[in-house]
Every structure is written in C-alpha cells, then in structure tokens.
Amino acid sequence: MTGPASRIRAWDLPTRIFHWALATLVVCSFTTGTIGGEWMAWHLRSGYAILTLVVYRLAWGLVGSDTARFARFLRGPRSVARYVRLTFAGRHPPGAGHNPLGGWMVAAMLAALAFQAATGLFSDDEIATQGPLAVKVSNALVSRMSHLHDLGRWIVAGLAVLHVAAIAVYRWAWGVRLAGTMVTGWMDVPAGTPQPRMRSAAWAAIFLAVAAAAVYALVEIYPMR
Amino acid sequence: MKNVALAVLALAATALPVVAQQIKPETQIHLRQSTMALIGYNFGNLAAMAQDKKPFNKEEAQRNADILPMLAALPKPFFGEGTETGGNTKAKPEIWKNLPDFTSKLEKMQQDVGKLPEIVRSGDMAAFKKQVADTAKACKSCHDDYRAK
C-alpha cells in the first residue's frame, strides 16, 4: 500500500450527525429500557427517534451522497472475501467510504434497529408501559412482540460491541483510523481516487423531516383513531 | 376503608395459605394470573394518569389506588407446591429455588402499592408520580428475575 496522497470528503455532514446521534440514542434506549420505571417515557421517545433516523437513512441510502448509498457499499461475496483476505494479511486496501465488510455491518445494524423499533411499537411490559400500536393487535401478538423486543436488545448490543471492537482492531492492528474519519469526514486515499459525489444537506433535512412526520403519525395519530 | 383493607389483608395472610394447599395447582395458577391481571389493570390506569397519557381523575384514581393493596395481598399463596409448571404459567422455576428473595420482592411491591391510597387522597401529584414510578420498578425487579417473557 502506498502512502496517502490525497484527501477526500468521505462522509457528508448529515451522515456524520446521523451516526453519532444514532450511537447516542442506542445507548439511551438500552439504558432506559433496562432501568425501567419513570425512564420508560424516555425509552419510547428514544425509540421513536431511532425509528425516524432509520427511515431517513433508508432514503439517504437510495438517493443520498455516493458513500451513503446501499448500491455502492453493499458488495458481493467475492469482494468481501478479497477484502478480508487482504486486510487480515495486513494490506488493507484503501477505498472511499465503507469497506466491503463494514458495509454489511451497516446493513446489519440498521436491520437490527428496525427490528427493535418495529417490535417495540407492539410491545407491552405488563407493568405501566405499552408501545403505541399494542392496542391495535391481539394480545397473543403483543406477547410475541414483547418477547422478541426483549431478546432483540442483545442483538443490537452484540453488534454495537462488535462494531467498536472492529474499530479498535483497525486502529491498533492495521493502523486504519475510522472513528476520526466519522468526526471530520475527511479520509486519506491514494492519489487518483475520485471525490465521491456529495448531495446537499438540505435534502437530508427534508428527508429527516418527512421521516419524523411519518413516525409521528404512526405513533401519535394513528393509535388514537 | 383502611379498616376494610386491613381486614382483607389479615384474612389473606392467615386464611389463604391454608386454603391454597387444598386448591389444585391448575386453579392456583389461574387465581394468581387473575389477581395479577387485576393488579395490572388498576395499576396501569394509575400509571396512565401519572404519565399524563390520560387526564387525572381523582375519583377514579382513588378507586384504583384503594383496591391495589387488597389485590396485592392475594397472589402470594397461589405459588404453592406443584404450580411450577402447568397451564400457561410464565412463572420461572427460579421462584421456588429462591423463595426468600421472591417473597421479599413481592412484599416490596405490596409495601409500594400500600402507599398509593394515602398519596392519591392527598392530591400531591409529584408524590403520586414518584410513587407510581417506584412501584413500577418493584414490579419490574421481580418480573425481570421471575417471570418468563
């Protein structure tokens, strides 16, 4: 691998804000759900915020900046295998955006969070807290959803631990700094790597507003009807 | 009201364990689930008011709060021998392995709901909200350990 010869903007501002907001909310959701009691009101709010971010991210993954697009970072098994081989041999192939392994981690975490948010909507802790859609379905389904929601948190926690552990391994075993890139957005790449196309943050704000409105309608308006 | 509550508590504490021994396990499971469902209904209504999910109605809250200590005294004797499995019980076998801990958690819940009638009567909303939250925690600490999902 040749030394870094140029700097590109790998992550747009919306993606960086999304990332750190989501990380904060996941910790918040896990903690409030585990403590319970008066914190459950915040557990629900945090869950709605996560659902909003996940819905927004799906839109940004389809029509957002190049490096945020699923079609760009979800690679086939051969790309992943080649990437893993090179990386574990200490020859991390540089690239702008998510690497082939990290791309699937993004997909896994988004799927796990969508699952948690969806099951949470239908959950009932049978103490003092119900998801907003629990009134809309049978108690048998509520019971199953609550069970899945209770188990799903360990999937989210497991993926989060794996995510942080992988960043540590990249940093200290392979000398690749990932966390800093997610703060500044800048990434060092070999000369000639094209700057990915970045989409205006205004579009992200619009998608986020639409996602928030949709989630609000789902959890506040629809259950009352 | 208080005297009635005490009388029911005394009755529950003395008479029911003896009765429970004669009640077959399937019926005990049915009885404890029924009392839990009623506790859940009455406490759930208070929680909804405490969390501003519905407007606070003092008369209604007082009814819920007054009956809770009586209901809370009921389920304990229905965790008798032979009720570890059967029906659709969600009770975990750990209950009978840690009976003193289970009992102390159940008693914590009884103490917490025992404070609700007076607090609702006083009309102190801050104290009401806090007591509802504390009671919910007592429910949760026992459910986390002893109730399957």
**What would the CATH topology of chain B be?**
Four Helix Bundle (Hemerythrin (Met), subunit A)
Q: What coarse outline of chain A follows from CA principal-axis ratios?
A: globular
Which radius of gyration of chain A do the C-alpha atoms yield? 19 Å
Question: What is the quaternary state of this protein?
Answer: heterodimer
The number of distinct β-strands of chain B equals 0
State the helicity of chain A in percent bands.
55-70%
List keywords for this structure.
heterodimer; A: 225 residues; mainly alpha; Fumarate Reductase Cytochrome B subunit; two-stranded antiparallel ribbon; 2 strands; B: 149 residues; Four Helix Bundle (Hemerythrin (Met), subunit A)
Set down the secondary structure blueprint.
The complex is a heterodimer of chains A (225) and B (149).
Chain A: E1 6-9, H1 13-35, H2 40-63, H3 70-73, H4 77-88, H5 100-121, H6 139-172, H7 179-184, E2 186-189, H8 201-221
Antiparallel strand pairs in A: 1-2
Helix pairs in contact in A: 1-2, 2-5, 2-8, 5-6
Chain B: H1 2-22, H2 25-50, H3 58-72, H4 94-97, H5 99-114, H6 116-122, H7 125-146
Structure description:
The complex is a heterodimer of chains A (225) and B (149). A two-stranded antiparallel sheet of chain A has the order 1-2. Chain A is mostly helical and 225 residues long. Chain A starts with 5 loop residues before the first strand and ends with a helix. Chain A has a single domain (8-224), classed as Transmembrane di-heme cytochromes, Chain C (Fumarate Reductase Cytochrome B subunit, Up-down Bundle), CATH 1.20.950.20. Chain A contains 8 helices and 2 strands, in the order E-H-H-H-H-H-H-H-E-H. Chain A is 65% helix and 4% strand. Chain B contains 7 helices and no strands. Chain B has a single domain (2-79, 86-146), classed as Four Helix Bundle (Hemerythrin (Met), subunit A) (Up-down Bundle). Chain B has helices spanning 2-22, 25-50, 58-72, 94-97, 99-114, 116-122, 125-146. In chain B, 31% of the residues are buried. With 149 residues, chain B is mainly α. In chain B, helix 2 (25-50) packs antiparallel against helix 7 (125-146) and helix 5 (99-114) runs antiparallel to helix 7 (125-146).
